[in-house]
């Protein structure tokens, strides 16, 4: 009897370990099969996907595959210009204890080049994305980055981001109810350092940026980006920024806006914003030639009349209506800045 007892005590952990090992092996093979199916699907869309031999791992907590020397290339009408992506490796993993999401993480610097643009290298202390394994509603994607650095391969410039979190949900089909968005998104970032080679009027550091919004209107199926924009515009498409906050030098901005495309496919729209530090911000923009001194003086005069009283030690603040039309950003019909034209690719 005692011998049987000890046999059971020893056998149960061994059986559990063997069962988990089998479960891990099956999950890892399914992950590898799923990745190979994804590669085949991309091939049918005109993408050339290459890599080294795939290996499995992650035991005992995860089922994971490592795809070394991953490359993605595309050249065709559905993408404006050639696109080339290369990474030393990508790791795909699923938790064995909560197999609800697929986690993707980059291993080493990633090179990205599109069309005639320069080769950009993306590195980071942590760069990952996750998507649900089972899509029962909108496609949900989450991105996370820490210590990100984007730089030209020539070393001419670089941008760093201390922390980046983003989440987007995209409807699988066109919403039957026009009041329902085609996509929603949330993005938050901190400690953004802009390229040092450019003289930024408000400084080269953006302390924080948060954007929340939704895309209204059915998302067209056209692969041509210009025709896509035209179809989205003609279908009543709009971009609704429900909340935006930004701290950049003397400027503190909290705003909301609704944007669309005009008949020339240029952004237009209107919104409201609370601006903190508007006087110093306008002075810096005028000093840098971003707007004329007369426009800055007129804007400060109007904003001063609209602003509430505050202590002298506090930055000037005001709530204002904003409009964007014919590439000109205005406050209370006072033109401030004329934006550069969006140059859409030829069909």
In short:
By secondary structure, the protein is an alpha+beta fold. The protein is 22% helix and 46% strand.
Would you mind describing this structure in some detail?
The chain is α+β, with helices and mostly antiparallel strands. It has a domain at 1-117. It is 22% helix and 46% strand. The chain has four helices and 18 strands. It has helices spanning 2-44, 225-234, 278-287, 293-306; strands spanning 47-50, 55-57, 62-76, 79-95, 101-106, 110-114, 120-123, 126-132, 139-152, 158-170, 183-193, 205-216, 238-248, 251-261, 267-276, 317-325, 328-331, 334-338. Strands 4-5-8-9-7-6 form a six-stranded antiparallel beta barrel. Strand 8 (126-132) and strand 9 form a beta hairpin. Helix 3 packs antiparallel against helix 4. The radius of gyration is 26 Å and the shape is globular. The termini are far apart. The mean pLDDT is 84.
The main sheet comes to: 6 strands, antiparallel, barrel
Radius of gyration: 26 Å
Lateral arrangement of strands in the main beta sheet: 4-5-8-9-7-6
Proportion of helical residues? 10-25%
Overall 3D geometry?
globular
Counted beta strands: 18
Strand proportion, as a percent range, falls in over 45%
> Secondary-structure element sequence?
HEEEEEEEEEEEEHEEEHHEEE
Number of helices: 4
Structural class: alpha+beta
Give the low-pLDDT segments: none
Mean pLDDT over the full residue set = 84
